[in-house]
Amino acid sequence: MGVEVAVQGLTKSFNGQPVWSDISLTLPAGEISVLLGPSGTGKSVFLKTLVGLLRPDRGSIVIEGLDLPRLSERALYEVRKLFGVLFQDGALFGSMTIYDNVAFPLREHTRKTEAEIRAVVTEKLDMVGLVGAERKLPGEISGGMRKRAGLARALVLDPRIVLFDEPDSGLDPVRTAYLNQLIIDLNQRTEATFLIVTHDINTARTVPDNIGLIYHGHLAMFGPREMLLSSTEPVVRQFLNAQRIGPIGMAEEKDAEELAAEAQAGVELPPLPPIPPQLPPSDGRPRRAERPPGQWCREHGVTPPPGSFTGAEWSGQRDHQAGPVGTGGGPR
Amino acid sequence: MSAPVTAVRRSGEFFAFCLDALRGLGRRPVQVREFVQQAWFISSVSILPAALVSIPFGAVIALQLGSLVRQLGAQSFTGAASVLAVVREAGPIVTALIIAGAGGSAICADLGSRKIREELDAMQVLGIDPIQRLVVPRVLASMLVAVLLNGLVSVVGVSGGYAFNVVMQGGTPGAYLASFQALGQLPDLLVGEVKALLFGAAAALVASYKGMTAKGGPKGVGDAVNQSVVITFMLLFALNFLVTAVYFQVVPQKGS
């Protein structure tokens, strides 16, 4: 029951400074897509533009035949009911308990009785594993719990499109693994369209059906997971394999001199690591959007790197910024 | 962008924000719960300081006028002068300072911290307009509390002045009350309340606007609160001048 999101020629700038320009991509209905990019490339801005919190300079975002940037403020509020958004820190309402936070959209938008609301809220809290924390305030729980509570609130109106703004930032690798599994399971259960914005390559390699990479103000590539993971395009290859060799430097991009020096020195890119298998839903049944491993490679005559889809441990550098365990929000 | 352009742009945005709030006023559902909570909150932070400020304020006016009036030889009008000063000017001004300083700063800090925690974005994404849901009830609550607070300040200020005049300056209670009757009139109280109403609205609007446009982390919220209090004070004194000028043009004064 997901819906397709078609983005065409999207351009956004702040005070004359372009953030990114001419982004065109289609999020296929019901599939999980990940949008990757180095820090500071405007991934969150893209997400906020997608839900109409920011207006793009040019371009269109078409959802169910409606072009979001052209809608009036009031029509936007209607379309937004299709969306569920998980913000970076959960963005819970600090003055309300977890229960009231999750119940909030139901109380505002539906005429359900308190008993019906209780049933829905309990179901969603159970889904994210937060039963027992209903009476706590957001300030009293850990960052990971805040994220899961934010997810429960985002899901409570049964959205057709769910957006995740860095679900793995500030979480330790174990919590990230749990959250990734939760995302897969939720997609299986709700069949909504998912878009995850992140710079965690482990998530990007194992969770999505599609990957997009924003680099240097434009969309470098968007397509099926296997297409990007087997790609030899320098930027994609460097980023997805967390290497230092390639066009991306410490400050956004390397200059031509550095690149020439690198080429002259004959630095060889290390071989592509094997493509890891996609994370399966925890109950073992397939998701509707799931494709058999290796299908894209076979159809397009691409030989995947040796050892792909076997579940062999991927040996690239991991890029986890693990914060203090479970308290990822920082002081407040 | 040059400073004048920025200033004009900010004013324009603030004006548009006020129009949005005005439009949100008529939109259903009315946020009764939020309104009551906010009215309770604003009064709880402002009643005590308002009362404590208005006693010395009334006394100072009585003191100043007492000596001035004696120099002019018009002791019998001490009461009239001090009551009129309190009801027409001092009441609304004290109300304005308290509403902007205590209520407005609290509103601005609250909305500002919600803004930087992305709560306001989350609310918009959940299909709820923060202006209608949060700003309108705060503006209405602030207006209501300002009007009531103005009544409180007037009563406390007048009694303070009365006590001061009668006990310390040796004035007579009869002269104090009689002269008040001679010069004061009902519109004096009404204009005080109208001023308080406008001040309450302006303080809440500026505070909300500043809070909702806060950016740059916790420091941004601090800056926003600071600016909102300063801007509100300037705006309120300007408004006060305008209303007073119009009042003297429109309402005929006794004995003139």
UniProtKB/TrEMBL annotation, chain A:
Pfam families: ABC_tran. One of its GO terms (molecular function) is ATP hydrolysis activity. It comes from the Bacteria. The keyword Ion transport does not apply. Keywords: ATP-binding, Nucleotide-binding, Transport. Residues 270-280 have a biased composition (Pro residues). InterPro entries: AAA+_ATPase, ABC_transporter-like_ATP-bd, ABC_transporter-like_CS, P-loop_NTPase. PANTHER family: INTERMEMBRANE PHOSPHOLIPID TRANSPORT SYSTEM ATP-BINDING PROTEIN MLAF, PROTEIN TRIGALACTOSYLDIACYLGLYCEROL 3, CHLOROPLASTIC. This is ABC transporter ATP-binding protein. It comes from Micromonospora costi.
UniProtKB/TrEMBL annotation, chain B:
PANTHER family: ABC TRANSPORTER PERMEASE PROTEIN-RELATED (PTHR30188), PROTEIN TRIGALACTOSYLDIACYLGLYCEROL 1, CHLOROPLASTIC (PTHR30188:SF4). It comes from Micromonospora costi. The keyword Membrane applies. Keywords: Membrane, Transmembrane, Transmembrane helix. This is ABC transporter permease. One of its GO terms (cellular component) is ATP-binding cassette (ABC) transporter complex. The chain crosses the membrane at residues 39-63, 139-164, 189-209, 229-250. GO terms for molecular function: phospholipid transporter activity. The keyword Transmembrane helix applies.
